Structure formats: structure tokens, C-alpha cells
What does this fold into?
Amino acid sequence: MSLLVICDHDRGALSDASLEALTFGRPLAAAAGLEMAAVVIGEGADAAAAGLGAHGAATVHVASHPLLTDFGPEAWGETVVQLVRSAGATAVLACGTDRGNEVVAQVAARLDQPFVANCRSVDPTGDGSGNWTMTRVQWGGSLLEDVTLTAEVRLVTVAHHAVEGVVAEAPAAGTVAPFAPELDDVLARTVVADRVVLTRGITLSSAPVVVGGGRGVGSAEAFAPLEELAAELGGVVGCSRAVTNNGWRPHSDQVGQTGTRIAPEIYIASGISGAIQHWVGAMAAKNILAINTDQEANMVTRAGHAVIGDLHQVIPAITEEVRRRRG
Amino acid sequence: MRILVCVKRVPAPGARINVTADGQTVDAAHLGFTTSPHEECAVEEAVQLTEAHGGEVTVMTLGPAAAEEQLRYAASVGAHHFVLIPIDDVDWDPQRTATALAEAISAVEETDGAFDLILFGNESADAGGFQVGVRVANHLDRPIVNGIKGIEVPADGAGDVVSARREIDGGFEVYNVPMPAVLGVKEGINLPRYPTMKGRLASKKAVVDTNERTVEAGGQVRLRLHRPEEQISETIILGTGPEAASAVVDLLEELGVLA
It folds into this structure.
């Protein structure tokens, strides 16, 4: 019996989210008395499979089929369902990214099993009668819910950024096992038909530095100094929900529960009061510097560092100081 | 075209959420309620699609009697028909919710005809189960894609393929999904309109159909809700005004982001 971890990858390079799922899965499998297996799907899966032994996977299932060249939630879900049956998995785990949650939801719907999304901790010894108990995230992390899970196949995702992905202390065999699912052609209906690249390089979710602006910035034009500082630091600009609702920035720049979750080395949050919906998108940042005129603003009291002042003066001064030190 | 939007009544995002003493639900005493943000955008998208292509929008919710407020709000921004699946004040689990919705949708379709498109929010703002739309689509044997921030339908509006855009890091994916289809949409697909005075008046006259469902609970059972421990951070004030720039850049150097 096994715990099957769904690993996402980009043309063979494992995603950080997958490493989080594997890191979360190792002690869970051990406590549940299950062997940890992994599945990688689609083009490039072979390359992604190679490193999974180091992350504790005893078996690595490599699923391939003509329909699996690109992502398709139904085709991926059906593939995992067939693998659960053929490999005898009694639990499935993925990282709670949009894609991870969608694929596990597909698995849940097809198996008619419950699915507990975005867990922070899972206790397989649970209530003592075979049910698992877990703590999951609500409201993007501002509220927690303890639940019991009664299921034949336990389906779980771990909240993104709840753990940091690290390699296993003791590597496992990582034996590669090819898997060829039988997929109905009709599932092509939800396979990616086309991809459009808008930005190459640094994006909001991967940037090492994010310079954020809120209502306090005041206008679309007033974001120019934030852009300048972000460019100087090799980062990108983010914003709060108030900013996108005012039409100052596109929604793709929004940091928050209904926008993007960021995890930079430092988040410079300027003119942002720090409503809970914004905070949950920013809280995975390793360091937060708040710039605000209001010393009592949530963002200031929650940040590790703060500057009390008008961002329109402080941000250009920082840019200037960076340039001065670089000569 | 015929479009259905499934919405959920949730406490207004941004508010501090307190929990009842028994931990079973949120303390609604001092909370304002709204339509979950992704779903508010789904309603707007449906209204825009019917404005462009003709047709009608039905909005359905599973929730307490007070969720009628969210259906009337949808009426005030242009939706046409309204269905309430009443439950008591404590959320149903995702499996139970999805089964009730699927049954109610089938019942409506039997009398009024099939929906070309069913829209869900990507996830509810409160419970965030990330699965109800997928389960409903599976019940109805229809395709679904989540994370949608752009929808285009052919000019005649029905019986064909809907083109849906999903935002990914640094770009987007395009899906061409045959209708009838289900899509999970995200905030950012549009900026929802505000109700007009005329819309508000119309919403008072809107007829809300009640569609009661008896469904067994699923395998995920709530023990309790609780607030996470506050992350207490001692904020280091680096200074006041532009004079703090030097201390800020010291910090950036220390973190190694200046390299």
C-alpha cells in the first residue's frame, strides 16, 4: 500500500511545489505505514523522474500517453485514478497549487471520495478508528479548520508554502515504473490547446524582490517610481486589491487571496494597509518591509521592518541610495 | 445562450473573522456578507456574455435563507432567474454541496432546457475546498477547466466551442472546450459593475425559486474552526521619511538582494 505523490514539472524540471509535497509526504507516509511513491505525467516526465529517489520516492511512476503531452485536468485526473487502482495506492497527495488542487479534485470526483484541500498538518493515526485528522486552511490562511477524513482512498493537498521543500535525509530507491493509462479521446476536450507567453524571466510568484503598492500610491502613473526601484533590484511590482479595483494595475499584479501568492526574499509593501485578504498572499515572503505614513497600519505591525513616511518620498530615496552605492 | 452561475454567500473579505463558541461556524454577529469574489466576477461574465450573444442568466446558491440577498444582488446587476437550495447555517461539506447542486441543476434543466455554460468561482473565499465545480461537472458528465480569466464564445453563442484562457506564471493557457461546458473562473476576468437604481428596483421583484435537496453528508467532517496563532513580529522601525533610505539599503545588502 502506498501514498502516491503527484509531482508537477515544467519540461522535466520539478516545481518547487512538488518538492514541498514530497517533503510533506515523507513523514506522513512513515506515520501511516505506507510506502511513498510518486507520479510524473507527460512530456519531460522521464527527466523529472530521475531525481525523485533523492526526495524519498520508493517508486516513480512515469505516465505517458498521446493525450498527456500538455496539461489537461481531466486527462491528468483520469491517469491518477487508473494508477491508484493498478498500484493499490490508499492515499494521494499533491501540493495545493491551482493545478494540484484541480487534479486532485478530478481524482476525487471520479473516485467519489472526499478530498481535503490545503492542509497544514495531517495525522494518519487520527481518531483511532482508521480515520485521518487534519488541519486545513480556510480564508487563504486566516482561519483554520480541523477535520476528520473517512475514506477508502485519502485525497489530500498540502497548502503551498506550508513547508519548505528539502531532499530526504535517507534517499529511497526511486525505481522508475512506466505507466500507460487508457484514456478516452474525448478527454482531449480539456487539454491545453495553445500557450501564450506574455513575460519571459521574472514573474510575481518567482521574483526575489517584490515592490508592492496599495491605495496610498494614489494613481496608475504614481507606480512609476515603484517600477524603477523594482527594476533596480531585479524584482517586479505587485499591488493590493484596492489598486486593481481602481483599474490602476492589471489583476495579474495583485498579491492576495484572490490574486497571486508571493514568496520573495523581501516584499517592500508601500502604501498598503494590510487587509487580511492581502496579507495571506504576502505572508510567505521571507522578509517584509512596510512603508506607510500610519504606524498602526496592519502591514506595519506585522512586518519585520518598517519605514514611517510617505512612499512618494521614501521609494525614490531608496532607489537613489541603491544607485549611489553601486557607483 | 443559457448560462448558470453557482455562487456562495460569504462574510465580506477583509473583515476579521471570529468563530462561534462551538467552533462549528463563523460568528456572523458583526459581519457583512457578500458574494464570494470569484463568483461575483462569474455573474458579471455571464451577464456580459448574454448582453453580447443574447440569452438568459440563472444564478443558483446553496446556503441559508439569508443567501437570498446574494441572489437579489445578482438580479440587480442583470441576472434573470434565481434558485435557492436552502440549508441551515452550517456549511455542507463539498461532496454533499456538489451532489445537491448537481441534482438541482438537473431538475432545472429538465423543465427549462440545458445550460450551454455553467460558471463556478475557482474556489469559495471562505471554505476554499477547490472541488465543488469539478464534482458537479463530473456528476453532469461535462468538461470543466478551472482558473479561467478569459472567456470567448462563437458569435451565435450556442452549440459550439467556448475558448477559455487560464492565467499561468508569465502568460496563459488556452482551452477550447465543447459546450455544454463548466468553467471555474477567477477574479480579474472582468471588473464587476455596480447595481444601477433601476437594477436595484428590479431585484426587489425578482422571483426566487426554492429547490430543497436531501443529501447524505460526505467523508470530510468538521471538528472545529479556529484562528491561527498570531504571528507576533517585533517590527524594527528603520526610520522616518526619505532619511531612512540608507538603513533600508543596509537591510537589502544584508539580505543579499543587492548583488
Observations:
- The first strand of chain B starts at residue 2 and ends at 7.
